[in-house]
Write a structure and sequence with these properties.
The protein has 162 residues and is α/β, with parallel strands linked by helices. The chain has three helices and seven strands, in the order E-H-E-E-E-E-E-E-H-H.
C-alpha cells in the first residue's frame, strides 16, 4: 500500500512566525478577494487540519492573537466532539501550519498520533496562554521556534510587561 505524504514543505523545526501557504492560490490570487496572504479569521475558522500521514485531526476553532506584538500566536484545534459537546481543544503554533489553497485546509507536519497525544483542554478550562512557560512547552512539543523570538526587537512575548 502506498501512502501519500501530506506534510507541508520544511515540516521540521520552523523558524518563521507565520503559517506557510502552498497550492495554486499561493502563486496567483484565486479570486478578487484579499486571500490567501491576508484573510479574515472567520474565513479560516472551521478549516480542516490534515496530519503529515493524511488524517483529519480536527478543525480550526479559534485563532489566537498576541495583541502586544500583533502576531498570530496559535490556532486552536477542535476535535473529538459532536456539535461542540465534548470537544478536545489543542493549541497549535501558527508557524506549525501550512495553508493548502487547493484543498482549502491546513496541513501540519506531524503524524496524527502526535497531534492526538498533545496536551488538550476543554472550552470551560483554557490554559493560561500568556504564561511564557506554557507557551514555550507548546512550541517545544511541535518543534517550532517560539514566535516571540523570531525577529523580535523587544520583549513582546507572552507575559511581557506593559
Amino acid at each position: 500500500m502506498t501512502t501519500t505524504s501530506h506534510a507541508p514543505p520544511n515540516a521540521s523545526t520552523r523558524s518563521s512566525s507565520h503559517a506557510g501557504i502552498i497550492g495554486k492560490g499561493s502563486r496567483v490570487p484565486t479570486s478578487a478577494g484579499p486571500g490567501p496572504d491576508l484573510m479574515t479569521s472567520a474565513t479560516l475558522e472551521g478549516n480542516t487540519v490534515l496530519s503529515s500521514d493524511g488524517h483529519d485531526v480536527g478543525t480550526i476553532k479559534e485563532i489566537m492573537l498576541d495583541v502586544r506584538s500583533g502576531r498570530v500566536a496559535y490556532a486552536v484545534l477542535s476535535s473529538g466532539g459532536f456539535l461542540g459537546v465534548g470537544d478536545e481543544l489543542r493549541a497549535i503554533p501558527w508557524s506549525a501550519l501550512t495553508l493548502d489553497t487547493d484543498r482549502k485546509c491546513f496541513l501540519i507536519g506531524v503524524r496524527a498520533e502526535r497531534v492526538k497525544a498533545a496536551p488538550s483542554f476543554d472550552k470551560q478550562h483554557w490554559p493560561l496562554m500568556a504564561d511564557a512557560s506554557w507557551s514555550a512547552g507548546v512550541h517545544q512539543y511541535y518543534e517550532t521556534e517560539p514566535y516571540w523570538t523570531i525577529g523580535a526587537s523587544g520583549d513582546t512575548g507572552p507575559g511581557a510587561p506593559l
